[in-house]
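FORM 7B: Structural annotation worksheet

SECTION A. Query
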Amino acid sequence: MTPGPAPQDAGFDAVIIGGGAAGVLVAIRLLMQGGQAMRIAIVEPDALLARGVAYSTDGPEHLLNVIASRMSAIAEEPDHFVQFLVRDRQETDAAALADTFAPRRDYGRYLRHTLDSLPAREALMHLRDRAVDVERDDDGHIVHLASGSQLRTAHVVLAIGNAPRPLPAHLLHDGVRFAEAWDYDAVRGIAPDADVCILGSGLSMVDAALSLAQAGHRGHIRVLSRHGLVPLPHARPGPQHGDGADDLLPLGVRARWRRLRQRIDGAVAAGEPWQWSFDRLRHHGEALWRSLDDGERRRFLRHAVRYWDIHRHRIAPQVAAMLERMQASGQLDVVAGRLRSITADPEGGSCVHHRPRHGERDHMLHADWIVNATGVEINIDLRPGELLQALRERGLILPGPQGIGIATTGIGHAIDRRGHPDPRLLVLGAMRIGDLWESIAIPELREQAQQIAGFILGK
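SECTION B. Predicted structure
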């Protein structure tokens, strides 16, 4: 499975576009179930598979947001990742490891190890290239690569993962010092005494703040976001099943929040952490989303999504403690406000102009560096790169509900502009958010990967 260029006019049973966690999970299931009779290609420019955005960091400070016992790549073997950690660290206490938040770099290594350990691994070809277009033909699809090569395949799997939401160009001036939160080396390379403004307060902000802290940053760090809300910490592990969602499904967004608060208040009064109530909704995310009509979905995206995110997508307790220490020391401030513009400071650096939440006048703060942590781009028409635009122009894909992600049906068949599902063009992961909402965590990815692999193999 040595990375290499594409053979000319190669033919495959499946071409997976994207070699992050989602793409690797599909490859694992295909090789486990189909064996060496399969011809599979992963198109991924990175030399290492299973990195993507989430697992490309080498920093020990960047931890998984879920305990190890819930991160198995293989649903039938719940302790699969834990056993990898036991062997990797030469430890004997698997029970202790099961409740830890492992470094994300270890998870990327785990996925690569799982893939490389399969007896049928030679059936997989890793092509270090970029897919720039896909067209239908009589037998399936032709995938066009940036190098000019073409891959003929019976099935295409879009596993393209997340992409950062770019800042509008008009907000930036020529001299701004700017870094993306996911460019970990660039963030660590910021001068230790520089004043930094991080735009956005979600999980990407957490990564950037941890990178700065790990590098010994001494300067002031200000976080600017519309709501000023940061991800909340996990509690001790608790039961994953229990509360159903039947009483929530008929309700609109406001009524759901009231009912959920009542449920949480009752659980807390009984001695449970509030986090357990959210964990018990874990398996009902798709049903909760799909039961909302278009108007209620718009209401959720406009008013409630940020509150949902900080409660649902939580961080390791030790990471939350680090952020609290940075705030207590005065090094880190979180400001609630709307970004208005970024202009050059005559004395050097940038002036970040913002309107405080509930305020009536613009304020300004100074920053030597700007870090973009505004999250992921979920609108396919705004997402950078040629591939999705090419698929749109050919009419092979459409935006998903509320204009986010790719419109899909069933196990992930892309819907074309005629409204027809394509049985040979499949989507999983981040681009199914419009249809499923909960579609980026490992439990969802491994289930989608298993379903897609079973379909391709005719099982």
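SECTION C. Observations
The chain has three domains: 10-62+103-163+378-456, 169-232+315-372, 253-312. The chain is about 30% helix and 20% strand.

SECTION D. Sign-off
Analyst initials: ____
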